[in-house]
């Protein structure tokens, strides 16, 4: 490795070495212009004079520059510094597939997901006329956002093979070396070895070899020498992958054999066809048992889930419940775990952005599934499906319901709607209130024991009421000295008095799982750095990243035992790392997996019909997008995997690039621009909650504190046109109600309330003339848009007719825009020249598939902003998806943990 820390390559400063191979050296570096960490691949000076290597290095740059795909490592920059050629790429947080396979084969579901992602990446490259030619496990990086295809240094449409005397195919780190066949021998197709033309089917052969190894743990072709290895590739068929993994579906065995066909005409002809086939196999329920592996933190061990149809699952659940209840003979053996998937009825979805988290629950008796879902028109209600039936039925009176949970006797369902918690009797009756209190943190799961005590979370701690409703009683109190901001997600233990619950720091970063009691205010930490947990069948279930695990838990002693075991990977998580799963003592578990969906958003400029006129920058996990006053820049809060926190970035909309504004260890969320665009005010978590700061939009100079008081979140929403006031939404009076406040920016004046009621008022935005403020309030039982004077005490004028949120004025004040409950961008004509504003009838402009609005535990900012011309909008657009994920239902899930 030739470069030392501190070496500069143009604006890039080397910080450490990462690895080296025959084709280049890779370093970690800092981009001094944008203050970000990158990876730099360097062509050593000794090779830069060799035209063959120079051409291959340049070829990689050209290949990457034309490929924009979520599963291909992007190219940031290229350069040449004093004879040293280099490429600049993202520094990926993860490990190569080769490194992962050193620990053994992948779980079948993981191999199928990774294979489909790489096939999709190859399809993108092939359609651009690029053949990779060196696909191998070492060139596949596994990251939190999925697999990434690396190293296009050998890409082109044909292969130059060396003389027959050449025998070395790879060098150190499995990178192709000088004097070698171009490619890595064990993954090369016969036509490469014979010097024939390489095409897309050559990469398909290599992907087949990679899949074979990922699933079986063995290489498809092996030999004691290079000569015998080449002979194996040219002449012999590898054993079926099912010989190493007997539960491999026959369709997958066939798929891999077709990839590895000697004649390219006998292989899959396109990577897209291969991707579709992999996705089909992953979605189809196998008819044979799937022996997986307990991996990750759990170590290794066998799992034996039997994958059945929904009808078979219903029989299994019924048998399991009857056996537990004593209806069947006690000598009846319980079945092995039985797994099925349930797709929501046609036209229904969990909804974005938090999707399935907190939206479904298995009844304690294990017989029914309740879920909150929305239809195509945006209407949301609770549905119930018996597990011995294919049908789901809506529950009357539950319109607008969010999180759901069951009573201990499985007769009632509790749900949250418009800041209130209600219950409904499934035997018959209408919903009745349990409490007026909003469950802002605990909506993901409440708890209801068989003694008719309901436990739920609020930002001030856990509260309890009886199942018939009443005044909430405080059960736990926040440890503000430790920085706690909320308690939630309770789950009762078998005695019905003690419970486990989650405590969170500011911005819902998990502190851990605690043990509490209805009879004692003292709580005990039992599991740090975990966001949600549930107890069933003698075990605590919780999330480790996106992996659902279970660990033995002695309920009498309140102590964990042994080591956690993996139940499922790629389980969906929402804000605060809360997992999408539910479990019952009857031995039934339900969870939702991500399915590889990419929910990162990308900025778009659209016209009044929703047609895209410009794409801005790359996709990112970004929220809170706001335009500068002149419409040339935008601020956004972006989450980066390396840091694990959100920072503010500034987009240059004309050039389509972004630069970092903040790099603090805390969270920067909401942001607004000063009237002249020279400053940005923002909400940031430095200690226990979101406080308000300001700094130059150029990034020059430190940030200064505007308001740092009270252990509650303050969401800055606008800056007055005269520059004297900031507006923010924050909590006051009741711990669960938000009001709109004004912060004078001159002097030491305290914040002043503008709109303060027992309801939630949010998202205040100044009118262009500064006389009025538009905001959202739920005082009518749902969020609606109102307008009030910009000084306290004036009238409140209703604007929306069917609900709405996230108001935004047109720059000339002649229209007001907002988001309807069914996610349409609405427009209302406005006249501001009279004593009071006059409003027209709201009308829809287009469907808004964008990220923003409410997110578990915090406000994710508006999904759009209006451009100064009044004819275009900046949208924080989400990618199109193939529909909602399925719910996986497991009967007798503890048998998954048999060793």
Brief summary:
The chain has 899 residues and is mainly β. It is 13% helix and 37% strand. The protein folds into four domains: 91 residues, Phosphorylase Kinase, domain 1 (2-Layer Sandwich), CATH 3.30.200; 191 residues, Transferase(Phosphotransferase) domain 1 (Transferase(Phosphotransferase), domain 1, Orthogonal Bundle); 317 residues, TolB, C-terminal domain (Neuraminidase, 6 Propeller); 250 residues, 6 Propeller (Neuraminidase).
Helical content (DSSP H or I, runs of 4+): 10-25%
Q: Which structural class best describes the helix and strand composition? A: mainly beta
Task: Using the CA coordinates, give the radius of gyration.
Answer: 29 Å
CATH topology of the largest domain: Neuraminidase
Main sheet properties: 7 strands, antiparallel
Q: What's the CATH class label of the largest domain? A: Mainly Beta
- Termini Cα gap: 45 Å
Strand order of the largest sheet: 38-37-36-35-34-59-58
* Percent strand: 35-45%
pLDDT average, as an integer?
80
Shape: globular
User: What would CATH call the homologous superfamily of the largest domain?
Assistant: TolB, C-terminal domain
> What CATH architecture of the largest domain would you give?
6 Propeller
Count the E strands: 60
Determine the number of helices (DSSP H or I, runs of at least 4 residues).
10
Low-confidence sequence ranges: 154-183, 285-312, 318-334, 438-443
Number of domains: 4
């Amino acid at each position: 490795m030739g470069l030392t820390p501190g070496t500069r390559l143009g604006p890039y400063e080397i910080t450490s070495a990462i690895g080296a191979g025959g084709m280049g050296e890779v370093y970690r570096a800092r981009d001094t212009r944008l203050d970000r960490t990158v990876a730099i691949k360097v062509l050593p000076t000794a090779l830069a004079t060799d035209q063959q290597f120079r051409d291959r290095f340049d070829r990689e740059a050209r290949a990457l520059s034309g490929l924009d795909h979520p599963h291909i490592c992007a190219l940031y920059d290229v350069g040449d510094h004093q004879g040293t050629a280099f490429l600049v790429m993202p520094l990926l947080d993860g490990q190569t597939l080769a490194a992962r396979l050193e620990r053994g084969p992948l779980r079948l579901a993981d191999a199928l997901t990774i294979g489909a992602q790489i096939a999709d990446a190859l399809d993108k490259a092939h359609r651009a006329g690029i053949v990779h030619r060196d696909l191998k496990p070492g060139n596949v990086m596994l990251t939190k956002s999925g697999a990434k295809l690396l190293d296009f240094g050998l890409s082109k449409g044909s292969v130059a093979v060396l003389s027959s005397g050449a025998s070395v195919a790879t060098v150190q780190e499995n990178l192709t070396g000088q004097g070698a066949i171009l490619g890595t021998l064990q993954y090369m197709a016969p036509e490469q070895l014979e010097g024939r033309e390489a095409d897309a089917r050559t990469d398909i052969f290599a992907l087949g070899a990679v899949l074979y190894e990922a699933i079986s743990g063995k290489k498809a072709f092996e030999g004691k020498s290079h000569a015998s290895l080449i002979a194996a590739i040219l002449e012999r068929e590898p054993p079926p992958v099912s010989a190493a993994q007997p539960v491999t579906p026959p369709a997958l065995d066939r798929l891999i054999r077709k990839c590895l066909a000697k004649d390219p005409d006998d292989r899959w002809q396109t990577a897209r066809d291969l991707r579709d086939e992999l996705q089909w196999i992953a979605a189809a329920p196998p008819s044979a048992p799937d022996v997986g592996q307990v991996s990750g933190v759990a170590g290794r061990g066998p799992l034996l889930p039997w994958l059945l149809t929904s009808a078979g699952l219903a029989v299994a659940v019924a048998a399991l419940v009857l056996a537990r209840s004593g209806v069947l003979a006690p000598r009846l053996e319980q079945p092995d775990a039985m797994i099925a998937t349930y797709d929501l009825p046609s036209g229904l979805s969990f909804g974005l952005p938090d999707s399935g988290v907190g939206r479904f629950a298995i009844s304690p008796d294990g017989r029914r599934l309740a879920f909150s879902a929305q239809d195509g028109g945006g209407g949301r209600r609770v549905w119930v499906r018996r597990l011995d039936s294919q049908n789901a039925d809506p529950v009357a009176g539950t319109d607008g319901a969010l999180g759901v949970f069951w009573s201990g006797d499985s007769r009632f369902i509790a749900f949250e709607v418009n800041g209130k918690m209600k219950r409904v009797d499934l035997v018959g009756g209408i919903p009745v209130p349990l409490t007026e209190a909003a469950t802002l943190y605990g909506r993901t799961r409440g708890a209801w024991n068989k003694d008719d005590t309901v436990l739920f979370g609020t930002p001030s701690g856990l509260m309890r009421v009886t199942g018939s409703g009443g005044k909430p009683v405080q059960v736990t109190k926040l440890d503000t000295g430790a920085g706690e901001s909320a308690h939630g997600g309770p789950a009762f233990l078998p005695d019905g008095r003690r419970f486990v619950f989650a405590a969170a720091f500011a911005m819902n970063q998990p502190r851990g799982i605690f043990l509490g009691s209805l009879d004692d205010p003292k709580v005990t930490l039992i599991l740090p750095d975990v966001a949600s947990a549930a107890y069933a069948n003698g075990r605590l279930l919780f999330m480790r990243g996106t992996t659902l695990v279970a660990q033995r838990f002695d309920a009498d002693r309140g102590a964990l035992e042994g080591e956690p075991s993996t139940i499922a990977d790629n389980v969906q998580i929402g804000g605060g790392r809360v997992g999408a799963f539910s479990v019952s003592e009857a031995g039934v578990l339900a969870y939702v997996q991500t399915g590889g969906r990419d929910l990162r958003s990308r900025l778009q400029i659209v016209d009044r019909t929703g047609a895209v006129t410009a794409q801005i920058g790359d996709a990112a996990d970004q929220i809170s997008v706001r335009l500068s006053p002149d419409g040339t820049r935008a601020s956004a809060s972006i989450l980066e995997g390396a840091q694990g926190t959100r920072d503010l970035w500034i987009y240059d909309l004309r050039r389509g690039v972004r630069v970092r504004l903040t790099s603090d260890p805390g969270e920067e969320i909401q942001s607004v621009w000063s009237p002249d665009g020279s400053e940005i005010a923002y909400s940031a978590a430095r200690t226990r909650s979101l406080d308000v700061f300001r700094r130059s939009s150029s990034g020059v100079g430190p940030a200064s504190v505007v308001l740092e008081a009270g252990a509650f979140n303050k969401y800055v929403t606008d800056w007055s046109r005269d520059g004297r006031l900031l507006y923010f939404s924050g909590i006051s009076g009741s711990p669960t109600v938000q009001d709109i406040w004004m912060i004078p920016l001159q002097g030491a004046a305290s914040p002043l309330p503008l709109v303060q009621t027992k309801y939630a008022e949010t998202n205040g935005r100044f009118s262009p003339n500064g006389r009025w403020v538009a905001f959202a309030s739920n005082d009518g039982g749902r969020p609606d848009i109102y307008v009030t004077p910009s000084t306290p005490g004036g009238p409140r004028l209703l604007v929306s007719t069917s609900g709405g949120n996230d108001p935004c004025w047109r720059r000339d004040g002649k229209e007001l825009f907002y988001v309807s409950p069914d996610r349409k961008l609405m427009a209302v004509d406005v006249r501001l020249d009279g004593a009071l504003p006059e409003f027209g009838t709201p009308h829809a402009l287009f469907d808004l598939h964008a990220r923003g609005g409410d997110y578990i535990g915090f406000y994710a900012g508006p999904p759009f902003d209006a451009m100064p011309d009044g004819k275009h909008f900046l949208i924080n657009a989400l990618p199109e998806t193939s529909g909602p994920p399925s719910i996986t239902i497991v009967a007798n899930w503890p048998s998954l943990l048999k060793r």
